[in-house]
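Dear colleagues,

For the upcoming journal club I promised to circulate an example of a predicted protein-ligand complex. I picked one with S-adenosyl-L-homocysteine because it came up in last month's discussion. The inputs are reproduced below in full, followed by the predicted structure.
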Amino acid sequence: MNNFGKVYLIGAGPGDPGLLTLRAHDILQKADVVVYDRLVSPAILGMCNMKAQMVDVGKMPTHHKVKQSEINKLLVKFACDMPGATIARLKGGDPFVFGRGGEEALELVAAGVEFEVVPGVTSAIAVPAYAGIPVSHRGIATSFHIITGHEKEVDSRKPEVGSASGIPAAAPESTSGEPVGLDFETLARCPGTLIFLMGIGNMDFIARRLIECGKDPKTPLAFIEKGTTPYQRTVMATLETAGETIVRESVTAPAITIMGGVVKLGKSLAWKKNLPLSGKRLVVTRAAKQSSGITARLTALGAEVIETPMIETRSLESPQAMCHSERSAVGMESKDSGLQCSIDWNSLAKFDVLAFTSVNGVESFFKQLFAAGYDVRVLAGKKIASVGKITEKKLLEYGIRCDYVPEDHTGEGLGLLLRDVVSDESRILLLQGNLADDTLLKLLPKATRWIVYETLPVAELPEWKREAVASADAVVFASSSAVENFVQVSSLSSLVSRQSFCQLSSQKAFCIGRMTESAARKHGFETVTSDETTMDSLVKKIVEYYA
Ligand code: SAH
């Protein structure tokens, strides 16, 4: 049994974040490293553990793309260097459908690295489904075939037809690196639906070869571009008009080509409505917890939403206490005349109850405790309280079982519970962040509060997010502080050069209220402001603007 990290080969689905599996979501939330491809949507990257190291191995064609052999080595290296870590290898669609997941798995086996495969919803089936085209249909198609028409030179020497049977389909290139061709005669005879992945650039050639080999030139065909995303587009053609249609309509990758009688069903079954915000990429800048409401609404209206929290939490090096003169500040040593005082760890002995109100609080407290040379034995005999189940679970990771968890998982619930169960003489210590409100202190006036972490503007946006933000149509600001944070974070993000920052500020800003509007204008944004200072009014304004 080695002590390596574990690698998860995860399928991210075709684009719509709603098509991510629950299993994939769980792993991404706890991943220490995420190695991701170009086709993975920003919304899915945004679901990853905020602390995960994000490694982009699938740059756009103009950038250098990491070679497959290097990706294989990288996965092994992460696993070997990071014992116990969760390493997510995130790919578009399904990892075993032209995703080279098999090759990566073989490399992991050879290196003795444990791995798991998390299948994804493949674009081969889901993208046609989003265009209202069933890949099989009684009386029309009794089989379907998924084929790579990949971008390199195509010849007719070797067949490469992946089946939908669950057996890993062949990779786009043979192991010798030689381009793999298609058996056009077999394909032309095949009565089922033909689904081509990749290969838009070769489609003119593929269509001509299929006709030469006897396939009906009138076979209906559809190109589905950026399927399942807000940018989805379906272009209909026939085998004989395939090439000219691609040029005329500028069909671009990623796109799927589907051929066969089922394509006609798309005319009556195209269910995906063109929504008011379809094709718009909007940046939402509120703090992560607050943003999901507006994100869900804008997403439901068809937009692609990039959530960009502008604040993050950071552990303090050692706990600080607020110096309230009227409060019995056990163990505090006054520092200057400021509000915060450093604490003396020996004073921990004087407390009977320790109350945690967040996972951050737990993590920061133990980090500081261990750094000061102590271990969990200093907590022997103390009662432990947690605001809710997630914090309780985090404490369990440190071997600490909670004595008190309120039914109502709020600060108020915790305060009321402690007031009931703890005796008046008990000394309560609250371990919180600098922005915690006074709810608990009001309910427990004799308690002491140590601040173990603080909330600050995020130091730097990850690269994938910078790219997503820079290419957005607009930014949505709900307060003037959100504008200030956005500007500060953008200029702090060292890789946002002045030039690209100027580009950001020439973007459109949708603002709630006049204060937000004037903050955004001050920084050069072109503003559109809601009539009322409500989220409803803002959403309405955004829809009206794009109508
Ligand atoms: N493993 C992936 C396929 C990887 S090959 C899967 O199971 O879906 C990449 C090709 O998949 C692209 O060239 C394109 O043909 C297709 N593809 C992936 N996502 C797509 C999307 N959202 N819309 C259209 N085609 C897509």
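Two points we might discuss: Confidence is low (pLDDT under 50) at residues 153-179, 325-338. The pocket of S-adenosyl-L-homocysteine is lined by residues 14-15, 39, 91-94, 97-99, 122-124, 127, 197-198, 224, 226-229, 253-256 (CB under 6 Å).

See you all on Thursday,
B. R.
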